[in-house]
């Protein structure tokens, strides 16, 4: 089994990503692509995708006081002979945001998240960001600086998992259906992260010295309206803290982008030939 953890700030789209992955609404575009949810939690994700996202509503985010859910899927990807049994743990964005602060002020749930990231059975992590430039130095760079320092220097965690230096990290920018991001999706490291989140990009390059351990991806849980209509398949509503939440515009044209590429890379260590998957 491949077990990964997905972390990221509030509102970056983690739960919507997992719901789109569970439902796989565009599977007919990729003959041989199969996703089979396993267990009640994964089936609940499918229901959320059908009854909330497809109806043009936003999913509620996780809260740090809630127990973290673990979703399990069997995934068959075209041209990959074996089935991937994938277990994904989704964490509340509030936990990620707490990494911004000195570890003396971390709540117990934050230490619990770090402990989970270090478990030997965890193959790697998906770090999800959005494209908002203001969060580059406000959240992403300081949070990742503190998290990676904690993973590298903590004797307690390293005793639990000697393989921390070899775990792969897929850094994924969500909401890439936006006009500012869509054209950069083919080379997200240089054309999205380096431009939109430059300090975060530099921090990751500085801390992760082995280029085989880290790679950058673009993802859209909503996609665009079509090959001949590249408008984003989403509507935007802004809340009071300047973060934008997207809603599916047209449920019948739901074609996510880049859901499986980071998973394939975490499992195989190489890029999948079709990055749109």
Overall description:
The chain has helices at 14-23, 40-53, 93-98, 108-117, 135-153, 155-160, 179-182, 188-196, 198-207, 261-268, and strands at residues 2-8, 34-38, 70-76, 84-90, 122-129, 168-173, 214-218, 224-226, 229-232, 234-238, 244-248. It is globular and about 50 Å long. Strand 10 and strand 11 (244-248) form a beta hairpin. It is built from ten helices and eleven strands. Helix content is 35%, strand content 22%. The chain has 277 residues and is α/β, with parallel strands linked by helices. The protein has a single domain (2-268), classed as P-loop containing nucleotide triphosphate hydrolases (Rossmann fold, 3-Layer(aba) Sandwich). The chain has a seven-stranded mixed beta sheet.
How do you describe this structure in short?
By secondary structure, this protein is α/β, with parallel strands linked by helices. It is 35% helix and 22% strand.
The CATH fourth-level homologous superfamily: P-loop containing nucleotide triphosphate hydrolases
Give the class-level CATH name. Answer: Alpha Beta
Q: Look at the structure and give the mean pLDDT.
A: 85
Beta-strand residue fraction: 15-25%
Radius of gyration: 18 Å
Contiguous runs where pLDDT drops below 50 for at least 5 residues: none
Salient structural properties:
alpha/beta; 10 helices; seven-stranded mixed beta sheet; 277 residues; Rossmann fold
Task: Tell me the layout of helices and strands.
Blueprint: E1 2-8, H1 14-23, E2 34-38, H2 40-53, E3 70-76, E4 84-90, H3 93-98, H4 108-117, E5 122-129, H5 135-153, H6 155-160, E6 168-173, H7 179-182, H8 188-196, H9 198-207, E7 214-218, E8 224-226, E9 229-232, E10 234-238, E11 244-248, H10 261-268
Parallel strand pairs: 1-4, 1-5, 5-6, 6-7
Antiparallel strand pairs: 2-3, 3-4, 8-9, 10-11
């Amino acid at each position: 089994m491949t077990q990964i953890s997905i972390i990221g700030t509030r509102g970056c789209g983690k739960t919507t990503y997992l719901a789109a992955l569970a439902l796989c609404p565009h599977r007919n575009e990729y003959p041989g692509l199969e996703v089979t949810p396993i267990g009640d939690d994964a089936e609940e994700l499918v229901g959320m995708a059908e009854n909330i996202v497809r109806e043009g509503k936003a999913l509620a985010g996780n809260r740090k006081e809630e127990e973290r859910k673990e979703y399990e899927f069997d995934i068959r990807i075209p041209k990959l002979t074996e089935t991937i049994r994938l277990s994904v743990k989704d964490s509340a964005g509030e936990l990620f945001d707490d990494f911004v602060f000195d570890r003396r002020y971390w709540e117990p749930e934050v230490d619990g998240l770090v402990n989970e990231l270090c478990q030997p059975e965890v193959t790697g992590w998906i770090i999800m960001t959005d494209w908002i430039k203001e969060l580059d130095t406000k959240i992403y760079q300081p949070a990742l600086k503190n998290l990676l320092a904690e993973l590298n220097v903590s004797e307690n965690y390293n005793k639990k998992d000697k393989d921390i230096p070899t775990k792969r990290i897929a850094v994924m920018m969500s909401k890439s259906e936006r006009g500012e991001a869509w054209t950069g999706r083919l080379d997200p490291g240089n054309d999205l992260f380096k431009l939109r989140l430059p300090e975060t990009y530099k921090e990751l390059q500085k801390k992760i010295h082995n280029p085989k351990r880290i790679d950058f991806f673009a993802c859209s849980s909503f996609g665009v309206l079509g090959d001949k209509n590249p408008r984003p398949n989403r509507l935007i509503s802004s809340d009071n803290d300047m973060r934008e939440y997207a809603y599916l515009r047209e449920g019948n044209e739901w074609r996510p982008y880049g859901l499986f590429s980071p998973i394939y890379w975490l499992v195989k260590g190489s890029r999948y030939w079709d990055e749109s998957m």
